[in-house]
From TrEMBL:
Alphabetical list of InterPro entries matching this protein: Divergent_DAC (IPR006837), Glyco_hydro/deAcase_b/a-brl (IPR011330)
Classification lineage: Bacteria, Pseudomonadati, Pseudomonadota, Gammaproteobacteria, Alteromonadales
Pfam families xref list: Polysacc_deac_2
Gene Ontology biological process terms from the UniProt entry: carbohydrate metabolic process
Domain of life from the UniProt record: Bacteria
Listed Gene3D superfamilies: Glycoside hydrolase/deacetylase
Natural source organism: Thalassotalea marina
SUPFAM superfamilies: Glycoside hydrolase/deacetylase (SSF88713)
Record-given protein name: Divergent polysaccharide deacetylase family protein
Length: 272
């Protein structure tokens, strides 16, 4: 966009303005272009806290610094209250939608299963959305069976597109079709790269966080998922400040998607 603007200004005003003024405008535009490119390409990390809602202490995650994204389980005792607080603090809230796992593990209330038809899937999604109407998107809780199935994911993406919601694939199976279908339905989407707290020791969480920093430096945009365990909150309170020291930006999922979009627009214009 800026490159186009630069050339159109040059074409339009080259005859009427002095070369000096045209050069000045061009330089200013180029500086702006470089700054925008750097911003769109700076290393970014999004941290999503999943599984919020069952324990009163889950609200401790609200003390984490910076743009954390909160993934809240619908129809849970504390989910709605914590989501409201997060929303009032201008944080991104997403629906942590229970989806059927291959293990057959209990889903919790309001989850999506493979025996549902489109009407039932839409109803369950709508019930969750009505409870968290300010949610900007959805990620899957479990779902190793359901995300690998075509029809339930098509129905989910259709719903998300209608409501202009984004999708984050928690990637609980390598066979997930969710992200691919999100792209087909033009639903903005991201995938989880790392889980930070599969083990609840400060050593393990610290190691995963180092991996997160290394991946962000290499791949620029990394999505991590953690959980509202007291051990995780304690560790993250100490670890999150390290991101700044490494020049990595902690962003909400919506900001990461915006940056991704600007970067691909710039790339497209560079090619043009
Ligand atoms: Zn979960």
């Amino acid at each position: 966009m800026l490159t186009n603007l630069y050339f159109s200004i040059k074409r339009r005003y080259a005859k009427t303005l002095s070369m000096h003024v045209v050069t000045k405008i061009a330089t200013a535009l180029l500086t702006l272009l470089i700054a925008t490119t750097c911003l769109a390409n700076s290393a970014q990390v999004a941290i999503i806290i999943d599984d919020i809602g069952y324990r009163k202490t889950d609200s401790d995650v609200l003390n984490l610094p910076g743009d954390i994204t909160f993934a809240v389980l619908p129809h849970t005792p504390f989910g709605q209250t914590i989501a409201n607080q997060a929303h009032l603090a201008n944080k991104d809230v997403i629906i942590h939608m229970p989806m059927e796992a291959s293990s057959g593990k209990a889903l919790g209330p309001g989850g999506l299963t493979s025996s549902m038809d489109e009407g039932e899937v839409r109803h369950a999604l709508l019930q969750a959305y009505q409870e968290l109407p300010f949610a900007i998107g959805l990620n899957n809780h479990m779902g190793s069976k359901l995300t690998a199935q075509y029809s339930p994911m098509v129905w989910t993406m259709r719903f998300l597109k209608e409501k202009q919601l984004m999708f984050i694939d928690s990637v609980t199976t390598e066979r997930s079709k969710a992200r691919q279908l999100a792209e087909r339905f033009d639903v903005p989407s991201l995938s989880r790269h790392l889980f930070l707290d599969n083990e609840l020791s400060s050593e393990y969480i610290g190691q995963q966080f180092s991996l997160l920093i290394a991946q962000a430096k290499k791949n620029r945009r990394v999505v991590a998922i953690a959980h509202p365990h007291p051990e995780t909150v304690k560790a993250l309170l100490e670890l999150i400040p390290l991101l700044k020291e490494h020049d990595i930006e902690l962003v909400s999922v919506s900001d990461m998607l915006d940056a991704k979009k600007s970067a691909s627009n710039l790339q497209q214009h560079a090619v043009e």
